[in-house]
């Protein structure tokens, strides 16, 4: 039986890449360039599978047998490529800013839990100040533990003084869903990023939306239904 949010929902946590921002192709391109720079074979479709993980964890999956020199080459080349990429190549998905403003105005706490580094997330927030104003807290993989470990969600729950049942995690990858399940937080998938609805549901998603801009209306419907049943 699927679980839906109740009237005690207070915290909405969002993944970044593939959920709020259309950055998947840029990330995959930078990973391909970094592997080429280090003389490693191209992993092609495998790049998409690790989006959402921290960079160290992603590299451990993509190239588990490389030595420290090659590892540093890949990491350095990836960071150089990504930070040189134009923000125009990585737009927010349609409707993201008004949707999050709607949710913040409705009284929800909004937060981000991402596999990005703090430097990377801060760059994105600085480029989208209206969106940044809606986000009350964030956790990154280089200051916590990478998905699917639940530490980022545990820390965000602690920040707001809330139990897991008062929170919802929105993401586009199985890593987001697994993290939410491990933390006891309601997992909600969006199908605009790396994984489709079937895979998201297999890994715990209790609902799958086309994109984040559908979230406010979905929450209004489901929370109203929960109140009628109460």
In helices, the fraction of residues equals 40-55%
Describe the strand arrangement of the main beta sheet, using strand numbers: 3-2-1-4-5-6
Summarize the biggest pleated sheet.
Answer: 6 strands, parallel
CATH class of the largest domain: Alpha Beta
CATH superfamily of the largest domain: HAD superfamily/HAD-like
- Strand element count: 6
Strand content: 5-15%
How many structural domains does the protein architecture include?
2
Helices and strands, in N-to-C order?
Answer: EHHHHHEHHEHEHEHEH
Large-scale geometry? globular
Protein name: HAD-IA family hydrolase
Keywords: Hydrolase
Organism: Acidithiobacillus sulfuriphilus
Q: What does this protein look like?
A:
- This is HAD-IA family hydrolase.
- Keywords: Hydrolase.
- This protein is an alpha/beta fold and 230 residues long.
- The protein folds into 2 domains: 11-22 and 92-229, HAD superfamily/HAD-like (Rossmann fold, 3-Layer(aba) Sandwich); 24-88.
- Helix content is 47%, strand content 12%.
- It is built from 11 helices and 6 strands.
- It has helices spanning 24-37, 46-49, 55-62, 68-84, 96-105, 118-127, 129-132, 151-160, 174-183, 197-202, 215-229, and strands at residues 11-14, 109-114, 137-140, 167-171, 186-190, 207-209.
- Strands 3-2-1-4-5-6 form a 6-stranded parallel β-sheet, sandwiched between helices.
- α9 (174-183) links the parallel β4 (167-171) and β5.
- α1 (24-37) crosses α4 (68-84).
- The two termini are 17 Å apart.
- The model has no long low-confidence stretch (mean pLDDT 94).
